[in-house]
Amino acid sequence: MNCSVLILGAGGLGCEILKNLVMCKISSIHIIDMDTIELTNLNRQFLFSDEDIGKPKATTAIKYIETHFPNIPIRLIPLVCDLTTLNIEFYEQFDFIISGLDAIKPRRFINEIIIQIVCKSTFEKVIPFIDGGTEGLKGHVKTILPGFTACWECSINTLPKGQDTLPMCTIINNPRNLKHVIEYVITIIYPLDSIKWDDVFADDKSDKIYQNILDASFTRAKEFNIDTSELNLAYVMGVIKRIIPSVSTMNAMIAANTCNEFLKIYHDMIEITDSGTIQANNFTILNGAEGCFSYSFQYERLKNCSACSKLYPQT
């Protein structure tokens, strides 16, 4: 398939998306991720192994593909950097952008970039942005064609509260806030899933465990020069209660749906009306928490959207 695709993120979703696109024999794939591999990634990021811990995710994922699929002629380029530091000229080279990110800020950045590209080219260059996201046993896929569908910003209110403030698919190697610190502590130093809580409560040791978590959080935060003015026992407990694990099966289903959306657009399986809108469902929700079902619908553009309103005539 003669096209160039940029994958955002090389975590649980990104690895699945990369594997799927390689099987589709895309001619050129770039994958970008600024993080390194942690032990806790290995249960759901299947392109990595124990020997890869500490290595950059993007380069290691590409190395896996090159090693295991040497006869598939694909141009594979890893990028280890913050995607928000790259300029519009970098993004203009791609035909598709597919996201497996777990934070709001970089998604908003990409949404703004593809809108700028449409404005700059006066609709000669339209880059589809397909965004996948998971939250435990739930997930979504949003398909954005700037100027033809609702943009990513139009549907920002559909995201679960707190999604941007707490990473869901990785422990950050270089923590940037207190929530990253606490998640590291309760996953690596004092893993909560290894504690026998019945014995703890029977012996009245819970206060000591929580204090140990708090002390370790202070130590790690200071190591990375992170402000600890808000760090206390209540803050730690609040973070613990909000952590939602990443589920490999949901990653696989969401990644498959993002690639289906890519294939539909690539093979012209969507219709554009005379008024210039897309006649297709561009928003899909998957729910595996209560049985298993999916629902797709057409998400309407917000007329007063702060991001994409510039693409439409004022009424």
From TrEMBL:
One of its GO terms (biological process) is protein neddylation. GO terms for cellular component: cytoplasm; nucleus. Residues 2-287 form the THIF-type NAD/FAD binding fold domain. Keywords: ATP-binding, Ligase, Nucleotide-binding, Ubl conjugation pathway. Its EC number is 6.2.1.64. SUPFAM superfamilies: Activating enzymes of the ubiquitin-like proteins. Pathway: Protein modification; protein neddylation. The keyword Transport does not apply. One of its GO terms (molecular function) is ATP binding. The keyword Nucleotidyltransferase does not apply. It catalyses: ATP + [NEDD8 protein] + [E1 NEDD8-activating enzyme]-L-cysteine = AMP + diphosphate + [E1 NEDD8-activating enzyme]-S-[NEDD8 protein]-yl-L-cysteine. Belongs to the ubiquitin-activating E1 family. UBA3 subfamily. Catalytic subunit of the dimeric E1 enzyme, which activates NEDD8. This is NEDD8-activating enzyme E1 catalytic subunit. It comes from Maudiozyma barnettii. The lineage of its organism: Eukaryota, Fungi, Dikarya, Ascomycota, Saccharomycotina.
